[in-house]
Task: inverse folding
């Protein structure tokens, strides 16, 4: 399947890289009168722990000038956004006193897959897993414990604040959850890590809210600029969403001398509540725009091969070795988890009836009849592919040229070699024609008499029963083993 890296080009807020979070009408009508939220009960309070701390600095973010606060050698933007030095666009954040510079682009996580690790000794790690589970249940992003991946999030507990780098900054990036940060705060901070900025930065926000500039603490005014006012490129994804989990509260950055005076109100002058319960409909729609083809882990099992037929039932050869053999356990997707099936192998595909065909380490070919594996060939194959029409092909273990091997088709009782062609990996389309990848990673398609070049390099291929063709390209994603 095609692996792609998506640059963020507007904020969700997005800033020449920030995405604006709302896609739907506000979950709370702009004209509803909602009482003020006392500052000491504001569920977002831990997200602005850098408020009034440190020294105000000037720098650049994604190539645009910004003001940020330096606190204990760390740079904060809009309260809880922890800027990476590369994002500020300078080698030393403390030395950056003014203006321009070429900043890095905010990047989406390739395929919506985020690697992470949790620092030892963190309190209440359930809030992290609960927040990630909320994201995976509502969007197409996924979270995978880090092994040795280069780009990843490290969850830490640093004082009583919530903060995160925005987007995939590259290498290790910190997402801080102090002891006062809730599951909702964690969902919000993960939003930043996925590429979202705060909701009120959208260009059209003045249609729905009023910024009370006189109530904002000195030095924090920059946090309330729209991306247009900041000189940044962006777009507004529908209307302002007061229900967004990325929305500022009415009392964000109010003057310490008058904390009861709101900085943001509705057009009718009333204050509003903000929520940190979960992603709003607008948040979800924006994330779907950023990560339209993200991947969700299926049952947490790891695999070395996968197959799915017309029935939609998935089968895998897991990465769990069967002791004393070179084969691996076979599992079937139940809809919620993977269930182990007897037997083992190395390659698998599924016919239109939903029954898998399996190749084991000896090259034997088997078909599942619903209760057991029935052998179809002995010492014959290194890979197998089945078309939407039921045609079964194998890459045999008989060399045809170099390390490429002959291709053979099942005739109902045995496999018969094709007249020419060879490869190492195979899949079959819905018309019964095999697609083959050879040892040079070239992709070829059978035309009935010969293999035609498809002029693309690939490492693996899968074809849906409807004929859709997907490949794993021969292009490595930077920082990944994929």
Result:
């Amino acid at each position: 399947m095609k692996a792609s890296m998506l640059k963020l080009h507007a904020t969700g807020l997005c800033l020449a890289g920030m995405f604006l979070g709302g896609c739907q009408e506000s979950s709370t009508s702009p004209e509803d009168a909602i009482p003020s939220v006392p500052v000491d009960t504001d569920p977002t309070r831990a997200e602005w722990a850098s408020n009034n701390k440190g020294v105000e600095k000037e720098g650049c973010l994604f190539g645009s000038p910004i003001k940020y606060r330096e606190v204990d050698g760390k740079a904060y933007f809009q309260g809880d956004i922890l800027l990476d030095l590369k994002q500020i666009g300078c080698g030393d954040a403390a030395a950056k006193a003014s203006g321009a510079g070429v900043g890095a682009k905010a990047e989406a996580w390739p395929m919506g897959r985020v690697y992470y690790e949790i620092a030892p000794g963190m309190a209440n790690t359930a809030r992290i897993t609960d927040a990630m589970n909320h994201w995976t249940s509502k969007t197409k992003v996924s979270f995978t414990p880090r092994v040795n991946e280069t780009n990843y999030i490290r969850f830490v507990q640093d004082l009583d604040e919530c903060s995160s780098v925005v987007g995939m900054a590259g290498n290790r990036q910190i997402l801080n959850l102090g002891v006062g940060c809730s599951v909702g705060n964690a969902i919000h901070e993960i939003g930043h890590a996925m590429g979202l900025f705060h909701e009120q930065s959208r260009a059209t926000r003045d249609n729905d809210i009023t910024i009370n500039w006189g109530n904002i603490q000195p030095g924090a005014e920059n946090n309330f600029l729209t991306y247009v006012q900041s000189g940044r490129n962006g777009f507004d994804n529908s209307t302002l969403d007061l229900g967004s989990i990325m929305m500022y509260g009415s009392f964000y950055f109010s003057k310490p001398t008058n904390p009861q005076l709101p900085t943001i109100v509705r057009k009718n002058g009333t204050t509003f509540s903000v929520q940190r319960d979960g992603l709003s409909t607008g948040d979800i729609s924006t994330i779907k725009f950023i990560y339209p083809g993200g991947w969700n882990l299926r049952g947490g099992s790891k695999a070395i091969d996968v197959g799915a037929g017309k029935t939609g039932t998935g089968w895998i050869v897991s990465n769990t070795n069967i002791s004393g053999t070179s084969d691996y356990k076979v599992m079937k997707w139940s809809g919620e988890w993977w269930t182990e099936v007897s037997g083992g192998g190395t390659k698998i595909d599924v016919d239109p009836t939903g029954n898998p065909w399996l190749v084991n380490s000896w090259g034997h070919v088997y078909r599942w009849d619903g209760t057991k594996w029935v052998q179809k060939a002995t010492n014959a194959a290194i890979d197998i592919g089945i078309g939407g029409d039921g045609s079964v092909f194998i890459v045999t273990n008989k060399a045809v040229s170099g390390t490429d091997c002959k291709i053979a088709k099942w005739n109902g009782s045995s496999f018969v070699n094709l007249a020419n062609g060879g490869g190492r990996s195979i899949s079959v389309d819905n018309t019964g024609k095999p697609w083959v990848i050879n040892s040079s990673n070239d992709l070829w398609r059978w035309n009935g008499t010969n293999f035609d070049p498809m002029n693309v390099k690939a490492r693996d291929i899968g074809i849906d029963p409807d004929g859709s063709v997907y490949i794993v390209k021969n292009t490595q994603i930077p920082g990944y083993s994929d």
